[in-house]
Amino acid sequence: MLGVFSSSIMSPPDELVAAGSRTPSPKITSAALVKRFLDSSARAVSMQIGDHVQLAYTHQNESPLQPRSFAVKDEIFCLFEGALDNLGSLKQQYGLAKSANEVVLVIEAYKALRDRAPYPPNHVVGHLEGNFAFIVFDKSTSTLFVAADQFGKVPLYWGITADGYVAFANDADLLKGACGKSLASFPQGCFFSTAVGELRSFENPKNKITAVPANEEEIWGAKFMVEGAT
């Protein structure tokens, strides 16, 4: 799955900006990155949302135990990969039909977060048990919400394209050569919300998340870590 967002939606993390300018390396534009993704799979689907957001996904090479899914409801778009162990109890909690899947559940959880402020984001994500990574974009508020599970079972990466878009993808190879050194693994057990304005751990939301510059020979520009986390 792939999501690209212009600077009007999300400002790139300073650490990735610094890493990208530290060593000259190849970058391509967000449009070229989306084209690369679409060209890699004949069955890939792409969605342009306004002038500043594009989402894409494919079922090619997906794990049957961790499928990818997409849904949109009330102008809330969601890409989800993985499986929730407690999906049944969460569907009851949110009053969803028995047929509802993980991506529908995440949209409902996000709506609860948005509409019942100050409902804490870590409370919402912390209730999700299982292996997952997801990207939520709320067109009505231009809000981006991204999260990955605590064990990193579903990988997620982010970087900055040549035209300054922030790109999220579950495939590191897709972003290699597209984002230069401004490429990092999205930290497990964390979420990023443009409403909050920063990365946070959903187990330890008060703990600071720091980025350590990676070695020059690595493809990564920085490694994000939760302080005090084991």
Report on the structure:
This is Glutamine amidotransferase type-2 domain-containing protein. It comes from Escallonia herrerae. This protein is of the alpha+beta class and 230 residues long. Helix content is 22%, strand content 32%. It contains six helices and 14 strands. The strands form three sheets. It has a six-stranded antiparallel β-sheet, sandwiched between helices. Strands 4-5-6-7-11-12 form a six-stranded antiparallel β-sheet. A two-stranded antiparallel ribbon has the order 13-14. A hairpin with a 5-residue loop joins strand 8 and strand 9 (166-169). The longest helix is centred in the middle third of the chain and has 14 residues, at 102-115.
Distance between the termini: 29 Å
What integer value in Å does the Rg equal? 17 Å
Largest sheet: 6 strands, antiparallel
Structural class: alpha+beta
Number of helices: 6
Mean pLDDT: 86
Order of helices and strands: EHHEEEEHHHEEEEHEEEEE
- How much of the sequence lies in strands comes to 25-35%
Major sheet strand order: 2-3-1-9-8-10
Helix content: 10-25%
Q: What form results from the Cα inertia axes? A: globular
Strand element count: 14
What is the secondary structure topology, with strand pairs?
Blueprint: E1 2-5, H1 14-22, H2 30-39, E2 45-49, E3 53-57, E4 68-73, E5 76-84, H3 87-93, H4 102-115, H5 121-126, E6 130-138, E7 143-148, E8 157-160, E9 166-169, H6 172-175, E10 183-185, E11 190-193, E12 198-201, E13 209-213, E14 222-226
Antiparallel strand pairs: 1-3, 1-9, 2-3, 4-5, 5-6, 6-7, 7-11, 8-9, 8-10, 11-12, 13-14
Protein name: Glutamine amidotransferase type-2 domain-containing protein
Domain Glutamine amidotransferase type-2: 1-197
